[in-house]
Amino acid sequence: MLLGLTALSVLMAHRGAARLANDHRGAAGLASDPRSLASDPRSLASDPRGAAGLASEHRLPGGWLGGWLVALLSVPVMAGIVQLVPLPLRWVEWVSSRAAELRLSVQPARYIPLTLDLPAGLFELARALTLVGIALLWGRLGRRRGASRVVFAGLAIVGTLQAMVALVHAAEHNHTSILHLYAFPPAWYSGLGTFVNRNHAANLLLLTTFATAGLVVEGAQRGEAPRRRWLGVGALLLQIGALLFSFSRGGLFAAAVAGAVFYGLIHGNPLRPRRALLRGLCLGGLGLAIAMVCLPGFGERMRSLGDRSILHYEKVRVWRDSLALCRDYLAVGAGRGAFASVFPVYRTGDEDVSVPYPAALPLQHLSEFGGPVAFLLWLLGVFFVRGLWLRRHGFSTAELGALAGVCGAVLHSLVDFGLELPGVSAPTV
């Protein structure tokens, strides 16, 4: 299974790279024609990133980026298919004796699947295929000039609408429903925008806020009309306010890191961005300190980190209990989407709350896919991020903002499960 997944991923990445080399030569096209730079020597000085600015004008999305993204998203698809296919009982007993034991206790059979929740596995497979389809579609549409700005503008509109809904709720002192259309569960006091959970709203706002910031900065660099720029600044401020008032610890920490990345990419030396990244981290830390002082709700939530009371939180206990589940299904996992069905056996808390996810992306992958596939998935993710970093000079400012937003959303998902929601995972892809 691992060999097949690896071969598929490398093949798709190779095809994407070949497409990039054949169709979109990017900055190499400039090097092949020295007159393109000599015709206007001031063009290098007008862009703080030097030749990277010219390269971004001639580079079209797709190619290498699309190939690696599809390869990365294909791993859950292939793993999900393998987990759903009925396999000989001896094979399942060899790779996952615990899963075979539970399956046989319900219905003895000669062929059984690896997953312990077949309907959930089918649903997750459909969702994974949808994400691959979105990536492939964007690989086609994203090659058109200006397509990325249209998508980022759509994200900015989505984030602004979320902030406006939150503003309406605050004005009405509405803490029991979403626009009086969807009532919160009893004793629930955690909604923001159109999300029942503030943490999930923060995950989406991380993505949309930095996409908006990229558009605003790029608009200033291009000298757009003042009215349009002020409209973008207003939308950005609304989203920043909504993100702050989510009081999400993971969300605001992720925002500080994503902000440092964005600052370092647009203000740093293209060859030595470390100093700018360090300045960005300092500014992000200062912003967190100001938020703790000026937002009493956030300050109270941060105190739990200092007095260690957070160790008794339900989410942290779920993390500890999930480790036992991961150990029992280390080879092939319990099945994609099967965490909610298997976890009650390992749960030590007595809260009357369902736990559909471990609220930590590494534990999610380890418990549902198993160690080898989870390792492969994160290894491909590391190579994907490394490739983005090496090619950062070819991205426009708006694209750098969107990448910083994706960075924030992924970082936040290390301590939450926002990326398990279609409303967050689809725009992230």
Q: In short, what is this structure?
A:
This protein is mostly helical and 429 residues long.
Tell me about this structure.
Helices cover 70% and strands 2% of the residues. It has 429 residues and is mainly alpha-helical. The longest helix has 26 residues, at 147-172. α1 runs antiparallel to α6 (64-84), α11 (198-222) packs antiparallel against α20 (397-413) and α14 (274-294) packs across α15. Mean pLDDT is 79; it is low at 5-14 and 16-62. It has a two-stranded antiparallel sheet with strand order 1-2. The two termini are 25 Å apart. The chain is built from 21 helices and four strands. The chain is globular and about 70 Å long.
By DSSP (H or I, 4+ residues per run), the number of helices equals 21
Strand and helix order: HHHHHHEHHEHHEEHHHHHHHHHHH
Strand order, main sheet: write it out: 1-2
Whole-angstrom Rg: 23 Å
